[in-house]
Amino acid sequence: MSYEYQFIGLCCVEGTGPKACPCSAAREKKRCFAAGIKYTFETMAEQDKIQKLLSEVGSDKEESMMEMMLLLNRALEERDEYTRGHSERVSQLAVLIGERLGFDAKRLEKLARGALLHDIGKIGIPDNILNKPGNFDPDERARMNKHPEKGHFLALNSHLLWDLIPMIRNHHENFDGTGYPDQLKGEEIPLEVRIVTLADFFDALATRRPYKEAFPKAKCLEMIDEMKGKKFDPQVVAAFHAIVDAFYEKTIRTFNENPPHADR
Ligand SMILES: [Fe+2]
Ligand SMILES: [Fe+2]
User: Fold this and answer.
1) pTM higher than 0.85, yes or no?
2) What is the rounded distance in angstroms from the CA atom of residue 11 to the CA atom of residue 1?
């Protein structure tokens, strides 16, 4: 059994019964899952070995899940050379901001996964819109702006993605309530989502896109400061300022100096 990606126990549904479990439900020959769990743990004598087993199974599972999410994201980004690596950089930057804001390891791990898959709904956007070099016409803009909702509906198909839905659905909300799709405002927007919004915006500004060149770092910071309290949560902007220089040098500058080429 797992809860929020944490492996919390084994459920033994075989072996429940009068001999396996002393509880009244089992004595009455009713199926008793709780008794099964208790029995499994009580009859395996070496508890430390059990704990080791559980943590190994749990971490294998988390690693596999992260690999699956990376694969899903890379499949999306293969369609567009300009945005290749975008979501992985957004994820890295979001984690740095989350760390600065004091998130614990579990919350950071969820933030990393949500940021990685924030644009997964773009899978449902046609190539001619996704890769359009110029500005969108109103109809194209409306279709593009549907990607958070498309992502939400995709995520509903797997319980492994349910806790990421706010980051997928609401990463284009604005702090002042003028964003989309739900016009959430201020703290109605979960903090994780406010972080992804800023990390997403910064990466889009600081790297080359089909419709624009990369903006210099100073210009990006100026634009973000101008939108503090409007598009962005001021506390997230403050945390971002504390970590952005090192991130930019290590990640954005390297990417911009070695951009991917359309060589396929
Ligand atoms: Fe997006
Ligand atoms: Fe994005």
Assistant:
1) no
2) 7
CA of 148 to the centre of ligand 2 (A): 10
In the chain, where are the structural domains located?
1-44, 62-257
For ligand 2, the distance from its centroid to the CA atom of residue 119, given in whole angstroms, is 5
Under CATH, which number does the domain 62-257 receive?
1.10.3210.10
Tokens linked to 252? 């954005």
List the structure tokens of 138: 């109103």
Cα 147 to middle of ligand 1, angstroms: 7
Separation of CA 172 and ligand 1 centre (Å): 6
> Which tens digits make up the pLDDT trace of 208-233?
887 788 999 999 999 999 999 999 99
Q: Which tokens go with 132?
A: 């359009």
- Condensed to tens digits (0 to 9), the pLDDT of residues 159-200 reads 889 999 999 999 999 999 999 999 999 999 999 999 999 999
Dihedral over Cα of 181, 196, 120, 252: its sign: positive
